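Box 3.1. Reading complex inputs
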Amino acid sequence: MITLGILGSTGSIGTQALQVVEALPEKIKVSALTGGSNAKLLATQALKFRPRMVAIAEKNRYPELKRLLARTGIEILAGEDGLTAVATDPGSKTILAAIVGSAGLKPTLAAIRAGKRVALANKETLVMAGSLVQNEKKISGAEILPVDSEHSAIWQCLAAGRKKEVKSLILTASGGPFWTWSKAKMNRVTVQEALKHPNWAMGAKITVDSATMMNKGLEILEAKWLFDLPLAKIRVLIHPESIVHSLVEFIDGAVIAQLGRPDMRLPIQLALTYPYRLETSWPRLSLAGKSLTFEEPDNNRFPSLELARKAGMAGGTAPAALNAANEIAVGEFLKGNLPFVKIPWVVEQVLDRHQVDPEPTLATILRVNNWAQDQARCIIAKG
Ligand code: NAD
Ligand code: MG
């Protein structure tokens, strides 16, 4: 039996993971759930899946959650300590890290330190603290299995050869809703337009990241740490159909790809049930009549990808600063306080001001995260 704790069960990945669990009742038991602030949904999930413990990040929602789960015998926790308790509880052998943004770092790292199998959706953890995560993983013996569809695809493709035979990883990107838009038209992007992803239904932050292509920037950094390869070997191709989820090129010229419908339940399930593939009843890929197209990225209209690569090359704390600035810029765009095209501009400004620490501790990374968030807020406020 797989015992599963979900960090971020009320989100897009979290709710899809619960659909996977629902289809595999004899294989997976939910042992713990956490949410950010939606106590109602968290309680509904808890009443259905009967975990041993539940935690809510926002402490002022604790009384509501306690009331909704009264007399159930479920342990109810709150705040950062509550999330850490869930991440490290011996009752869960597997932790799905599905919190969005930098808030996911501490609980995900706690799960890694506790030696869990970590199914990783929260890419920001690796972007911010990849080196630290790899060290902690070695010490604790934790496993990190990718949930992000591109990284799951690469992981599956890598089974076709040896690591030293890998020439390059090719991450695909849909290009987002503005791939065909002119630069002039992109000046007038609305929040509503940015939240309409052509192929995937996801949380708001990653949907905007997909529209700016920062998501692919974060993903090349995620791939670097997951697969222990230099950024020079990690490429990106635009593939608007989102059917080829990513590819691996080997030294003999063979290119292996993983294909599927754009449905996160597959990579979620594989990360949970690995090394086994289990039958699913979801709609399946049918290729007849479909065309698959590929193009090079456009760094002129979408500068975020290269900003991320630059931060990755600088290393140390630079990716944490990039991630934090982006998080604030996206948040302010969603509130209507920043034009869409200014998101990469804010990130660049913060990176320019940042003094890189090449070998940061966790405390340094968290300090840089706060510093870069403050800088981004300042830059946006000044216009
Ligand atoms: P989401 O916004 O739908 O859900 C985020 C979850 O995190 C929710 O449960 C929310 O309550 C919780 N949360 C938010 N702020 C929190 C805080 N401060 N403290 C604790 N919990 C908090 O996001 P999502 O789309 O499910 O994405 C989750 C992660 O998975 C992100 O890192 C994203 O990049 C990654 N990811 C998502 C998809 C997808 O299809 N949605 C695909 C690939 C990767
Ligand atoms: Mg992805």
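In summary: The radius of gyration is 20 Å.
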